[in-house]
Structure formats: structure tokens, C-alpha cells
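Quick start: read one record
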Amino acid sequence: MPIDRLERVNALLRRELAEAFFKVFQSDNLDMAAITVVRVETARNLRNATVYLSIRGHEHERGTILHKIERKRGELQRLVNKDLTLKYTPCLAFRLDLSVEKGDHILDVLSHLDIPKDETEAPETN
């Protein structure tokens, strides 16, 4: 399978899963604004897909939230299968992705650094 097709499938799954989360968890007391589908990595044979989620602001509840999502995995797969036409509906596995938080932390650290101006710069003269 060409790589660009696999990338399109990953993007399509990511979009469909983001919509499916709202449908599946609308009646639960789950803060859906805190959950982001960061990326999806589908196997070349389209049988399995790993879904990377970012859960912001609920550091102590991440395990519980991930467990709730994992319990409704079948329902999420059914919604994806209903909306997409693929040869196989991938079996979904959910993983926590901390890269967004790490990036925010690095940007925060960089914004608080006191970097002196470069002394080799010549002052502007008009």
C-alpha cells in the first residue's frame, strides 16, 4: 500500500474518531474538551490502528479516562465502520501522548529565559 494512501487513512480515522468521541461520550460525565486525538498510526494491512490521545488538565484522572475510552472501544469502532468504507475496520488501541504537554512546557521555559541582546549587533543609525 502506498505511503500517501496510508497517511490519508490515518487522517480520515483521526477525524472520524474525533467526531465519534462526542457521540459515544455525550451522556457520560467526561470532559471532552480535554481530550484531543493527536494522531493515528494504522498498520499497513489496515487491521490495527494505534490512536494517540492528549488529555489536558486532568493529570490525576488520565488513567480513569483512558480506561473509560478503552471500555467503549467497540462502540467507537462500530461508528467508524459505519461512516467509512474500508476493506477492514482497524482494531483500535489507545495510547496517551504527552508530546503536546512537553512542547508547551518547552515553550513556557523559553518564554521565561532572560537572553541578553547580542553585543555584535550594531546599533541602528538613521
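The first strand starts at residue 35 and ends at 42.
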